[in-house]
Design goal:
The protein is of the alpha+beta class. The protein has one domain (about 1-185): Cyclic phosphodiesterase (Cyclic Phosphodiesterase, Chain: A, Alpha-Beta Complex), CATH 3.90.1140. The protein has helices at about 10-25, 55-65, 100-115, 140-150; strands at about 1-10, 30-35, 40-50, 70-80, 90-95, 130-135, 155-160, 160-170, 175-185.
């Protein structure tokens, strides 16, 4: 069994900008496990523990879906937390623009993986970029206040590929390995 998820990776400039934001927020508390910038992505579907025999089928599925969708241009919009910033468990950066296209893509991925006998996703797709996970709920007031007041620059975000990632959990954090990349639409043909 291998632990898998499907995501849209970010460009280097966006990763760099989010790293700058994380650096500022990190100084406010040690109660958060921050995501390394190269690991920040937009998760389309978490698959979890998966039999290795499924991987070729998932790759074929992603190629088919990617051929039917164009790259999505969006931008960073705001910072937030799940379930909220008063008692966050997950801290995130939101995106704004063409969310309907991302929802359509996620819906197609969901339907596709269900044909491969994956369980129905229990959570509604909410496009976001996870920045950190709260380790303990104490001492977050300054962080929450800063996140509410901080307005990220509307940095353009171009999402142009679906990636099947393998995730290996380690004490130092997860290690992500790209098992397959499927370019969205025209990008795949160099247009």
């Amino acid at each position: 069994m291998i632990r898998l998820f499907i995501a849209l990776p970010l460009g280097h400039e966006v990763e760099k900008y989010l790293d700058k934001i994380i650096g500022e927020l990190r100084s406010l508390t040690d109660a958060v496990k921050w995501v390394r910038p190269e690991n920040i992505h937009l998760t389309v579907r978490f698959l979890g523990d998966t039999e290795e025999e499924q991987v070729p089928k998932i790759k074929t599925l992603l190629d088919k879906i990617a051929s039917e969708h164009s790259a999505v241009s969006t931008s960073l919009s705001r910072l937030g937390g799940f379930p909220n910033l008063r008692r966050p468990r997950v801290l995130w950066a939101g995106i704004d623009g063409n969310v309907d296209l991302l929802e359509k893509l996620a819906r197609q991925v969901e339907l596709g993986v269900r044909t491969l006998r994956f369980e129905k996703e229990s959570k509604r797709f909410k496009p976001h970029l996870t920045l950190g996970r709260v380790r303990r709920p104490q001492g977050l007031a300054d962080l929450s206040a800063r996140m509410e007041s901080l307005r990220p620059e509307p940095i353009p975000v171009r999402l142009d590929r679906l990636v099947l990632f393998k995730s290996t959990l380690t004490p130092r954090g997860p290690i992500y390995e790209r098992l397959h990349e499927a370019m969205l639409g025209k990008e795949r043909f160099g247009e």
